[in-house]
Design a protein that fits this description.
The complex is a heterotrimer.
Chain A lengths: L1 H28 L13
Chain B lengths: L2 H32 L21 H7 L18 H36 L2 H35 L1 H11 L2 H21 L8 H32 L14 H5 L4 H30 L3 H22 L2 H15 L1 H8 L6 H23 L10 H19 L8 H6 L15 H23 L2 E2 L5 H29 L2 H29 L4 E2 L9 H27 L4 E3 L3 E2 L10 H28 L14 H9 L1
Antiparallel strand pairs in B: 1-2, 3-4
Chain C lengths: L7 H4 L3 H22 L20 H13 L22 H10 L10 H10 L33 H13 L30 H7 L7 E2 L2 E2 L9 H4 L2 H9 L18 H4 L2 H13 L4 H5 L2 H9 L6 E2 L2 E2 L9 H4 L2 H9 L18 H4 L2 H13 L4
Antiparallel strand pairs in C: 1-2, 3-4
Helix pairs in contact in C: 3-6, 4-5, 5-6, 9-11, 13-17, 15-17
Classes of the chains: A mainly alpha, B mainly alpha, C mainly alpha.
Chain lengths: ~40, ~625, ~375
């Protein structure tokens, strides 16, 4: 039970990090960099 | 039983084929590029000759600007010229799309048939080609009629285009001959080249057929994109580049990709209707099972090709904006913006019909009970997203008010094009459609790999995070930042959706490797589901007519944008109602012609019972009909 | 096989009707949606005649506003959606002055009016921060030059927009009104067919914007009221076709557009030359007959003296009736180079007049010329 929960949590964290990186990457490719908190960097 | 495993192979092979064709194109493209000069009908380059060496007279002789016809120069045959060309061109495009698309997936299915040794694939591929072969003659007939009507009704424009494209038109004609020859050999040689090494010859012919077909399409596309965004000519339309520079305008490749994908979706939908019709009319359980399976495969092709289409459309639109912001805004924020409401209705219809068909199809397998519970939630999300999408947020404007504001350019309408709420809705619809797709494909399988739980968790996580990301991007960047970020964040949404689709396909391929399959029963599906297969081609056809009209209309009162004005009596943008009526006319005409094609396809398989045999074997007649 | 027949057998005959009915109903549903939406037609820019004779500052500003929202398509981007600076909110007079002071400004404008003009016809000279093309770091403007296709505003329209931009915030309109002229096309009158009278020619090409002619006009170019006394027909023609070949003293070169000849029909050009040379009111008024119109239309007087005036490239036709009979006259028009009057070069008279004339016109002209006996 604990192990299943750990797996789910770990996977969610990994996927979230992946999408977080993806957001940064996509916006910077377009010349629209983001701050750490995903707000537009001016 | 085996089908679903093969359909995943079908999908992979299709991707492979697309990549192969892409390679083929880039090959031809390079050849055209390096040798473009020699068959260019135009002046090599004016820049090479310095102004001193060239007298003014010479320059004028060589650089002929685009003609400037007056209204009187357009022949008047008593009927609106635009309407005639509209109908004929649209019919040509419908059949052209069908004819180019069918051999593409026929080749894949044929390959699959050889790979699996299952002759049903081969027979189905052959049957698809039977439809394509009649459609091919109709394409050619409409093509000829279109050329004649263009030369009759728009002589100055055609004279100009002939001058610009020169010898390329002859190359097109030669390709057309080649296409016909290969097509006939491919179809009529099917049984002669069916087994062993001969099959490889046949498959190579299929590849050649697709290569020639794709080249034909991109050649013809260059005419349309030249008219939208001319390249290789100077500002008055005189040719200053070689044929390659003329063809390779900024919109050429986006249109090539968009049409290529859309053709597959369209072709799949049309043959799906054929299968649905045969399924409904089937007199034996065997025939019903066969056509149910054929309809399923067609729907699979249509929806799979349809899912990436919005992204190709997005690229096209982005290139239009990059080429001319004014043109982009005319399409998305000007008078044509309302057409995107109808587009939403049509795409919504396609997605709902496609989903409905998948859900109904789940009755075929016993394993589907595990997923039945999801359906109502998917349906609710789809319907809500659909409603958000079609809600025009600017209905405060009556047509009278728009007219008072000068018609085409009201700033408020621009909000439609980048409406964050709509972006969220569209992406969610695509994701949930893919979810239907995925659970359908999972419904007859039980995974046996050891990491099944982790794999499922990963899939769930990707869905959840992608959906959250899409909503976050839409709401945060859409409503609380400026336009640049608003537009930029839509790429983020699009990539999230693509991530779900790609990772879903890849993950399932590994997760269900060596999976246990549960029994499924083809033909065990409601009749109502077959009507979803009729809804698809109708909506696709209408959608093609609509988007083709938008693509053509963004030129407004120009034949060739910025270079040759349209001064004909039809140089205005008609009302949406008028355009809609035209689209229904072409759709109904197309349906009638397709019906004719189906009838012809049946006719070739119908044998009259010899008179002497009638009394003896009445059952033979029925068997013949059923086949 | 026959055992497995299901209830589909009965519905089999109806499948065609049902599926077609379903398809048609769906197509009609889409049509209905299309017809429920607002029905607007997008007209191509149409000829919008503006009477500059009666033009006031207010109507000029109004013209500018209609260009701003209409033909100029400015409001597509210059609105509150952030695509481009929101001109309607900004005070453009003040904004222009600020931008001229900006060190990034590299253009040649000196005041608000010239800045606004420059920003329209050459938008790339100064790109407002944050509005440059994506990735260009505000060095390239996404805005098209408004005097080029596809927008193609005329100089008068550009000035009208400037007037509107100045007036909308209560600033003084510094841009000068276009000099009095009968009319201006918002859209080049390509489809209007050739002009019939000299007045129409002068109006169409806006000569009076710069020249005094027909009793009124601007002073940018030389007075044309008595040009015939100073220049020959050829010189006048040359000055229209190639205006910079000879510049009248005291006037700057390069001002007069060089493309008039390209836009004019030959008839229009000849009509204009005849009029400018003779300084007379158009022939129509003198002759008061259909023949006068024909003569004017085909510009006979560019080369021939008739009706009391005309050029001397070709023989005078005042007494032609005394020298030639009707058939010879007809031949000289239809095939001008078969018989050449003594002392005149051959190959000068265009051989295609007869093709352009209707039979009635040719007959009328021959009849008229036959009566010209030099009395």
């Amino acid at each position: 039970m604990i192990k299943t929960l750990q797996i789910w949590l770990a996977i969610f964290v990994i996927v979230s990090l992946y999408f977080y990186g993806l957001d940064h990457f996509i916006m910077s490719v377009q010349g629209l960099p983001l701050n750490m908190d995903l707000t537009p960097a001016q | 039983m085996k089908e679903s495993r093969y359909s995943s192979r079908l999908m992979w092979l299709m991707l492979l084929l697309i990549a192969a064709l892409g390679f083929f194109w880039s090959g031809t493209v390079t050849i055209t590029n390096t040798s473009g000069d020699w068959f260019s009908g135009a002046v090599a380059s004016v820049d090479d000759v310095s102004a001193d060496e060239m007298t003014a007279g010479d320059a004028e002789l060589k650089l002929v600007p685009a003609p400037k016809p007056t209204r009187a120069d357009y022949p008047d045959i008593g009927v609106s010229s635009r309407s005639i060309v509209w109908v004929v061109a649209q019919m040509h495009l419908f059949f052209g799309a069908l004819v180019l698309a069918v051999p593409l997936f026929v080749l894949v299915i044929e390959l699959l048939g050889m790979y699996t040794g299952d002759s049903r694939y081969d027979d189905m591929a052959h049957e698809f080609m039977k439809i394509s072969i009649t459609a091919y003659s109709i394409t050619a007939l409409f093509g000829g009629t279109l050329a004649l009507s263009l030369f009759l009704l728009y002589p100055d424009l055609m004279a100009y285009l002939m001058r610009v494209f020169g010898a390329q038109m002859m190359v097109y004609a030669i390709l057309f001959f080649l296409e016909s020859m290969v097509l006939y050999i491919y179809y009529y040689g099917w049984d002669a080249l069916r087994y062993g090494n001969a099959k490889w010859v046949h498959l190579s012919l299929g590849l050649l057929l697709n290569g020639v077909g794709a080249t034909l399409m991109v050649t013809a596309n260059s005419w349309a994109t030249f008219m939208m965004a001319p390249s290789g000519v100077n500002e008055v339309g005189a040719v200053i580049g070689n044929i390659w520079e003329v063809m390779k305008g900024p919109l050429w490749n986006p249109i090539n990709l968009h049409r290529f994908i859309a053709n597959i979706a369209f072709g799949g939908a049309v043959v799906g209707a054929y299968a649905a019709y045969k399924c409904l009319a089937a007199r034996t359980a065997e025939a019903r099972a066969h056509y149910d399976w054929m309809g399923y495969t067609s729907n699979f092709i249509a929806i799979l090709a349809f899912l990436p289409l919005p992204f190709a459309g997005y690229w096209l639109m982005a290139e239009i904006y990059a080429y001319s912001q004014q043109m982009g805004i005319t399409a998305m924020g000007g008078i044509l913006a309302w057409l995107f409401i109808i587009q939403a209705v049509l795409i919504g219809t396609i997605l709902l019909a496609g989903n409905y068909y998948l859900w109904s199809g789940m009755s075929r397998t016993e394993g589907s009970k595990r997923y039945q519970g999801f359906i109502k939630y998917i349906a609710v999300v789809l319907v809500i997203c659909f409603l958000i999408w079609v809600t025009p947020h600017t209905l405060i404007l009556t047509s009278g008010e728009i007219a008072a504001l000068g018609g085409s350019n009201h700033p408020l309408l621009g909000a439609l094009g980048i409406m964050p709420a709509k972006n969220i809705a569209v992406n969610l619809m695509l994701i949930f459609t893919f979810m239907s797709f995925q659970i359908y494909r999972r419904s007859d399988k039980v995974a046996t790999v050891s990491w099944e739980k982790a794999g499922n968790a990963l899939m769930v996580a990707i869905y959840v995070v992608a959906i959250v990301n899409i909503i976050f991007a839409g709401v945060y960047y859409g409503y609380f930042t400026n336009t640049v970020y608003k537009v930029g964040s839509s790429v983020m949404q699009v990539v999230s959706t693509l991530t779900v689709i790609i990772s879903g396909v890849v993950l399932d391929a590994f997760l269900y490797r060596g999976a246990k399959t549960l029994p499924s029963h083809w033909g065990q599906v409601s009749n109502r589901a077959q009507y979803a297969l009729f809804a698809l081609p109708i909506a696709f056809t209408w959608l093609m007519a609509l988007m083709g009209y938008v693509r053509s209309s963004v030129r407004t009162h120009w034949h060739v944008y910025t270079v040759m004005k349209d001064t004909s009596p039809d140089n205005f943008i008609p009302t949406i109602g008028y355009a809609g009526n035209m689209m229904t006319i072409v759709t109904v005409m197309f349906v009638l012609f397709v019906l004719f094609i189906f009838w012809i396809a049946n006719l070739s398989g119908t044998k009259q019972v010899p008179p002497y045999a009638v009394r003896k074997v009445p059952a033979a007649e029925r068997a013949g009909d059923a086949a | 096989m026959s055992v497995e027949k299901t209830n589909e057998v009965k519905s089999g005959g109806n499948v065609l009707v049902k599926s077609m009915g379903f398809s048609l109903a769906l197509a009609l549903l889409f049509t209905l949606v299309a017809n429920l939406l607002p029905q607007v037609e997008g007209e191509a820019p149409v000829d919008q005649k503006v009477d500059l004779g009666a033009l006031t500052v207010e109507s000029f500003v109004a013209l500018g506003e209609s260009v701003f929202t209409g033909k100029g398509t400015c409001s597509l981007c210059h609105n509150d959606l952030g695509r481009a600076p929101d001109i309607l909110v900004l005070n453009m007079e003040e904004t222009a002055v600020e931008r001229l002071k900006d060190e990034r400004y590299k253009g040649s404008a000196t005041d608000a009016e010239s800045y606004l003009h420059e920003s329209m016809v050459d938008p790339g000279i100064y790109v407002v921060k944050g509005f440059g093309k994506k990735g260009s770091n505000d060095t390239i403007s996404p805005m098209p030059a408004v005097n080029k296709p596809p927008i193609e505003l005329s100089e008068i329209e550009v000035n009208a927009v400037i007037a509107y931009l100045q007036a909308k915030d209560g600033n003084d309109v510094t841009v000068s009104l276009p000099a009095e002229a009968p009319a201006v096309e918002v859209q080049p009158a390509e489809s209007a067919g050739p002009a019939g009278t000299v007045e129409e020619v002068i109006a169409r090409y806006g000569c009076q914007a710069c020249h005094k002619v027909l009793g009124s006009g601007g002073e940018l170019g030389p007075d044309l009221e008595h040009i015939g006394k100073r220049l020959s027909a050829e010189k006048i023609r040359q000055s229209i076709i190639d205006p910079n070949a000879n510049i009248a003293e005291g006037f700057p070169p390069g001002v007069m557009p060089e493309d008039f000849a390209g836009k004019m029909t030959v008839k229009e050009l000849e009509m204009l030359v005849v009029y400018l040379l003779s300084g007379e009111k158009p022939v129509e008024d003198i002759a008061g007959s259909g023949t006068g119109k024909i003569i004017a239309q085909f510009g006979c007087q560019a080369c021939h003296i008739m009706l009391g005036s005309g050029g001397e490239l070709g023989p005078s036709l005042e007494d032609i009736g005394a020298r030639l009979d009707a058939d010879q006259i007809r031949q000289s028009i239809v095939e001008p180079n078969t018989v050449i009057a003594e002392g005149y070069p051959s190959g000068v008279m265009p051989p295609n007049f007869a093709e352009q004339m209707s039979d009635e016109q040719l007959d009328a002209l021959v009849a008229f010329l036959s009566e010209q006996k030099g009395d």
